[in-house]
Amino acid sequence: MRAEAAATGRGATSPPPSAAPPRRLLRNLTAKIAAIPMVLTALVVFLGGTVWTVVYSFTSSRMLPRAEFVGLEQYDRLWSTRRWVISIENLAIYGLCSLVFSLVIGFVLAALLDQKIRYENAFRTILLYPFALSFIVTGLVWQWILDPEFGLQSIIRGLGFENFTFDPLYNPDIAIFGILIAGLWQGTGLIMILMLAGLRGIDGEIWKASRVDGIPAWKTYLFIIVPMMRPVFITALVLITSGIVKLYDLVVAQTGGGPGIATEVPAKYVYDYMFGGQNLGQGFAASTMMLLAVAIVVIPWAMLEFGGKRRG
């Protein structure tokens, strides 16, 4: 009887499970009410615009949208167009190289700055400064630097190296790498700062223990520090990938997609067809493919980040 009374008493003092969800819903009620306009804007403008674009990618819209559905005709035409295929190849080359070099160079620079060197603030400012520039300015600057008439090639030839040749923007086979140089120059500084923040968050006792055990510094970085910085690398990966997919203004400022279509990218293809070619259906189809590429990156990242935290 005492056990039953005690059990009854415990049951009487604890709130029913159904009371917990309403309390959670009413928590921070003022902040939730204030966020309603932004949520509605996101749903109507961003989500609504996305759905509208996807739906009209299956139509024969030209200068103006029209609900004349043609199935997958726009997508079939898209993937049979040489210009689109080349833009995808260029984006794949640029994206893979940018991803690898940005992470490697950014981490190496951060590791060097993490050694408490003199004038660290000055070096950090210099390396991060290009990120403050717009892609238009970056593209124009590197267009001048890589110009064979008065750029890097002209300067080195003026020093006596008459046979030196470096004009990637005028060679269709390697023109995309000229774009890559400018992109790395601008974006690596941000990755360096992210990596440096991650390194500064590592407990110093780990380094002391590795020195006591005689572990080389490169092994400590590779097998201990890098796995501990997994969230930083995932954040950097998402930032780099989003910048890769929307690559447009750097190409327009530096090469205009040339020579020929050697540096064509999907974002420029979309802009040219929607505004220059007055073919909204084709532009919508290309935009949908770009959206799909972003979703392929963002959804796994969200599952890794938020799904792992929820399980934890």
List the keywords:
single chain, mainly alpha, MetI-like fold
Overview of this structure, please?
The protein is built from 15 helices and no strands. By secondary structure, it is mostly helical. It has one domain: MetI-like (MetI-like fold, Orthogonal Bundle). The chain is flat, with a radius of gyration of 27 Å. Residues 1-12 have low confidence and may be disordered. The longest helix is centred in the first third of the chain and has 32 residues, at 82-113. It has helices spanning 2-13, 20-26, 29-56, 73-79, 82-113, 120-128, 135-145, 152-158, 175-200, 204-212, 217-228, 230-245, 249-254, 266-276, 280-311.
Q: How large is the count of helical segments?
A: 15
Task: Label the CATH architecture.
Answer: Orthogonal Bundle
- CATH topology heading: MetI-like fold
Distance between the termini: 40 Å
In CATH, what is the class?
A: Mainly Alpha
State the domain count.
1
Task: Let me know the largest β-sheet.
Answer: none
Q: Find the count of extended strands (DSSP E, 2+ residues).
A: 0
Average predicted confidence as pLDDT: 85
Tell me roughly what share of residues is in helical segments.
over 70%
Q: Which stretches are poorly predicted, pLDDT < 50 over at least 5 residues?
A: 1-12
Based on secondary structure, the structural category is: mainly alpha
Order of helices and strands: HHHHHHHHHHHHHHH
Nearest-angstrom radius of gyration? 27 Å
The CATH homologous superfamily name equals MetI-like
Shape: flat
Strand content: under 5%
What's the short version?
With 312 residues, this protein is mainly alpha-helical.
